[in-house]
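ping. complex inputs:
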Amino acid sequence: MIDKTWPDAASAVACVEDGATVMIGGFGRSGQPVELIDALIAHGARELTIVNNNAGNGDTGLAALIAAGRVRKIVCSFPRQADSWVFDERYRSGRIELELVPQGNLAERIRAAGAGIGGFYTPTGVGTLLAEGAELRTIGGRDHVLQFPLHADVALIGALAADRWGNLVYRRTARNFGPVMATAARTTIAQVDAVVPLGQLDPEAVVTPGIYVDRVVVVGERPWLREGRFVGGVDIDGHPIADETQEAVR
Amino acid sequence: MNDRISRDELAARVAADIPDGAYVNLGIGAPTRVADFLPAEREIVLHTENGLLGMGPAPAAGAVDPDLVNAGKQAVTEVAGAAYFHHADSFAMMRGGHLDVCVLGAFQVAENGDLANWSTGGEGAIPAVGGAMDLAIGAKSVYVMTDLLTRAGEPKLVRACSYPLTGVRCVTRVYTDRAVFDVTERGFAVRELFGTATVAELEELTGLSFVTAEGAAA
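pong. complex structure:
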C-alpha cells in the first residue's frame, strides 16, 4: 500500500541535512509552504542553499529561515522587494551569497532537472551580465546561451489538496513553482490544506502526479477558505480583517 | 498647452494601440496602469507571469485572495475564460513568442532597440531581474512606457545604454510623456508628438537625431 501522508511537518523535514540544496515553492507569499519552513527552522539544518523566486517577505516563512542564519546561498530571480529587509541586511553585510537567475531560466532549469535534460539553449539573457561566461550558440539565426539544470536534495512546496498517493492539485496562482520543483528534488515534501480519499481527485485535474511527491503533510485549511470554497475576509498576507468587510463577500 | 502628457494619459495612449484579441503582459509599476484604460469593447487577455491568463482588476475589499496575485504580488481577480499554469509553462509562453505585446518600464532604451530596465549597477544596490529578460526577448511587440527624461533631466533615449542590459535589440516602440517613437534600422522614428513638443526640441533634449515614421529625415 502507498501512503505518503506524514503525521507532522517536523518529521517530514527531518531528512534535510546541513549543506543541502532546498527548493522552496511560492511566489512572494503566494503558495509559500510556511509550515514546512517553520519546521525546517526548528529542525536546525544549516548552510543551506535555497532556491526560490524571491528572498523572503516580511519576517515569516523564508525570511525567518534567512533571519535564523540557516541560509548560505540563495538562488532566485527577484530578491529585492519592499518587504525583503531580512535578506537585504544579510546581503549588504556579506553574510549570504546570491545567484541571480532570470525568472524564466530559473523555472526552465528546474524543469530541465526534473525532466532529465542536461542543459538547454535560451535567448533569454543573451548579451547581458546574467549570461556572462555562458556558452553562446547561434541557432536559427538567433543567439542563445547554454543553461544547466538545477537539482535539489529536497523540495518544499504548497498545494491545495492531495490523496495518499501524493497526487496534488493547487489553487490559482499559488501553483507557481510547485509543479516544477516537485520534479527536480530527490525528496519532495508537500504541505496541503487537506488529504482526500484516493479516487476523489479528478484524474483530469491532477496537476502534479504522485510519482513526483514523497511526503504529504496536512496543515489545515487557510483562513480565507471554508470547505475548499473562497470566503475572503483576509488581507493579502492572509491575516483576518474586520468582520464588516468580511460580510461584503458572502 | 503642456509639452507633456500625464502618466494616466500615457497609459491610455498605450492601451489604445493594443488590438482586440491580443495576449498582453503588463510589467510591474507604471505599465500595470494600462489595464485601467483598455477599451471595454475589445477582448484583451492579460497574462501575469506567475501563472495566469485572463487576469482581472483588483478585488473588492474583503475579497482579497492571497492565492491570486499578479507579478507585483498585488491581489487581482480572474475573468471568465481564465487559465492557470505553472511557472515553466508561463515562461514558455513568454520565451516562445506567444504573447502579442508586453509593456515594460525602462531606465534606458538605445536607438538600436537595446533595453536597460533591471539594474542601474549602483553601489550597494541589490540586483533583481525577475521576468524582465524573458519578456524583453519573448513578446512579439515590446513596448516601453516611460518618461522621456529622468527626474534629474537625463534622457532615457540614448545612443547606447550605459546601464546593464535587459535585452539586445528587443524594443519595438517607446511611449513617452512627450512623444511616441518606433525603433527602426536607422534609429528612433518619431511616430507621434504630444502637446506642444516638436521634433527639434526632443532632439535637443536627447542629443539624438530622429527620423519620421515615414522614413523622411526630420
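Chain A has seven helices and 14 strands.
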